[in-house]
Amino acid sequence: MADPQWRPSTKARLLWAINAALLWLPVFVAQAVVVIIGWWPGWVPGAVLATTMVLAVVHILVVPLWRYRVHRWEISETAVYTRTGWFTQERRIAPISRVQTVDTERGPVDRMLGLATVTVTTASSAGAVQIVALDQETADRTVARLTEIAGANAGDAT
After folding, report:
1. Which long-range contacts (CB under 8 A, 24 or more apart) does 2-6 make?
2. Where is the chain membrane-spanning (predicted)?
3. pLDDT-derived band of residue 1, with 50, 70 and 90 as boundaries?
4. Would strands 99-105 and 90-95 be described as parallel, antiparallel, or unpaired?
5. Across the strands, what pairs with 84?
6. Rounded Cα distance, 22 and 15, in Å
7. Structure confidence at residue 150 (pLDDT)
8. Which end of the chain is more exposed for a tag (fewer CB within 10 A), N or C?
9. Domain residue limits, the chain
10. Whether the model pTM is above 0.85
11. What's the first-to-final CA gap in the chain, in angstroms?
């Protein structure tokens, strides 16, 4: 089987970097509080801060690039295909005949960047298939196309 054809928006890397930075922000705030209060000897906060900074830089700068290289998606007349992950990669194929709902989600950072996530809910124990970080226009077209294909399909979505 060939890999799915399309990548997320080029702004996906920025989205993932911003989300990673927002995850690290409380960690740095907590470390600042520890330094101000002076709970640990002088060298411990410095060593912890250095380690945290290395991990944060990798998470913020490297992981989004890596994820962008891996993430793919495609829609055919018969199925929705996705490939996701960065450490553990997952391929999902959702037959159109199993599609129950198609939703669009936009968080605050997504809206700021003009992005959306399309969620295809199927009759599967593995859960919904998500196509992440699409430009809003692409997401709208994808939802319309999936709705059209699913409506023309005679499957029972169970």
Report:
1. 3/72, 3/83, 4/72, 4/73, 4/74, 4/81, 4/82, 4/83, 5/72, 5/74, 6/72, 6/73, 6/74
2. 14-40, 46-66
3. low
4. unpaired
5. 90
6. 11
7. 86
8. N
9. 10-69, 73-156
10. yes
11. 25
How far apart (Å, rounded) are the C-alpha atoms in residues 99 and 124? 9
- For residue 50, what pLDDT is reported? 93
What tokens appear for 26 in the block?
Answer: 């409380």
Mind listing the pLDDT tens digit for each residue in 49-95?
Answer: 999 999 999 999 999 999 999 999 999 999 999 999 878 999 999 99
98-109 pLDDT, tens digit per residue, is 999 999 999 999
Joined tokens for residue 78: 């018969």
Fold of 73-156: PH-domain like (2.30.29)
